[in-house]
Amino acid sequence: MPISDPTVDAAGARLPGGGTAGMGTADGERVGALLGRVPRGGYEVVVRRDGGEPVVIRNAPLLDDGTPMPTRYWLVGDAEREAVSRLEAAGGVKAAEAAVDAAALEAAHRRYAAERDAVLPPGHAGPRPSGGVGGTRRGVKCLHAHYAWFLAGGDDPVGRWVLERLGGRPGAR
Predict the structure, then answer these.
(1) Three-state DSSP string of 126-149
(2) Which of 75, 91, 114, 143 is 20 to 30 A from 85 (CA-CA)?
């Protein structure tokens, strides 16, 4: 299934700050409930459960007010977020960083940043998002961000590591 650009409206015009694609829709209401707040920028649901429930959103690189948004993929699914939180609480960030090849992780950060930066509005001269997965340039900052990108199809060795720890089931408990 092709994924549309959430920074462009139906007529092809670029939305300011990436727009708020999805707001005012069933997805917008559900994503807001999962986040516990109204999203401050454009996004699109890119991973869903079989029943349609949002699991991962892909954020525009800029919030509606122009603030950089370094986190391109956000894990919003309740079961997935809880499972990854338990893994983090058990020392998962340090364990993942120790287990994953540093060069592979560095390459993943570069790919993530390149994908995000490629959809900045043409001619954007303001502040830009920085870093790679979760806004960091190296190492592991947040298993949720790595796992979200992996579930959305990103080549992320940390996301793969998380899936293995969850028993190969994205929402494993």
Answers:
(1) CCCCCCCHHHCCCCCCCHHHHHHH
(2) 114
Question: How far, in Å, CA of 30 to CA of 28, rounded?
Answer: 6
The residue whose two tokens read 């999203």 is 39
Q: 3-class SS at 164?
A: helix
Nearest alpha carbon to residue 169 among 142, 147, 139: 147
Model confidence band, residue 171 (pLDDT cutoffs 50, 70, 90): low
Question: What's the whole-model pTM score?
Answer: 0.83
> Which DSSP string do the residues of 22-46 spell out, in sequence order?
TTTSHHHHHHHHHHTS--SEEEEEE
**Is 41 a residue whose pLDDT tops 80?**
yes
First-to-last CA distance in the chain?
28
Tell me the C-alpha to C-alpha distance, in Å, between residue 137 and each of 18, 70, 141, 158: 23, 11, 9, 14
